[in-house]
Amino acid sequence: MLWGNESKIELFPRNCPQEFQYGPIPESLQIHMLYRFLSLSVVLFLSVSGFSQAQTSIPSPQTEKLRLAEQSLSAEAQDRIKLVRAADSIWCGFLDKEGILWFGSNNGVYRYDGVAFVNLSMKDGLCNNQVFSIIEDRDGTLWFGTGNGLCRYDRTTFVHVPIPWSGISGTWLEKTYPIVNPNQVMCMLQDRDGDIWLGTSGAGAYRYDGEQFVSYLSDEGSTDADGLHNNIIHSILEDTAGDIWFTSINHGGVSRFDGKSFTHYSVKDGLSDDMIRSSYQDSEGRIWFGTHGKFADSGERDGGLDFYDGKSFTQLKRKDGLLRGHIMSIHEDKEGLLWFGRGVGSMFTYNGKDFTPFIAQNGQEFDGIMFIMDDAEGRIWFGGKKGKLLRYDGKSVTDFSRKGS
Hints:
The chain has 405 residues and is mainly beta.
């Protein structure tokens, strides 16, 4: 089915699991859609009128003209009516106040309203195509953490908000860029006071009050070959008490800000590793930390999965059933089950007693998972490397990625 007006055209592709919607629509693509609509209208009309199927295959001069126009569609226009590309890495997901899902990737942002996907990129005004984090502020404005600072989006216009610039001219940094990019925003949150906190890939953290940036934690963690700390903040969390937690992948452990001062936690304080990739507070108030480390017998750090109960840290490792570390994402579903996605290794769940690999009905396991989240209906979405974007409804997994491209 297809319908439209001057600003929006919608259609249901026969070979896709969902409807797709894009706008503004290129003229050539509008012609393509109109051709589909006219063709379907002819079929419906002739069916109701009693004509045979054979008679519907004779095109009119107008539909033949539209068919030829369809063949001339640019590769770019055809690409906009398909699913998430297999070449894309999906770094993050976010559910806004209207129930719209947003996914950050290395190909811009994907917007999904439950019916249609829209891809927004630099061609549409997005500040940078590398989108690693997404939040919505109190006013309903979206903020994208990109490979080149912040990008503010009021659902109409993108505005670039540059963070304090950090040069990448040093010899060591040039060799590690873009793995270490101090101008890249890895994570964000808006605290209860309305300030926006962001963690960078090499310049620590910043607090932004709408007018100026204040730097924090830039000198935490180990020192690199250039003599600088280049602290990478991989996640930020505000707990139910209003304290803000920062995790460092640069051997900086965990830092806690109570509004006045920072408290730093490392292996000596009970963490299983000082390289922390993810954090999450569950419904019981425990704060979970997913480490980067693997296991001692593999010749690497003895990192696992840790949680903080307000007094001390508890470590869960292989002896407790944990397969390995490198935990990139943590999420609790509506039933209280904890989900963990790993950059290396399969996604798994934890019910408080047992760790269980998540295996789909067809036997498939899912690795390289960078984020896990709920939609407005409580269904679980997860995604990550190699174009992975999937949804689990409690029974089956739906794959929204487009293979072979």
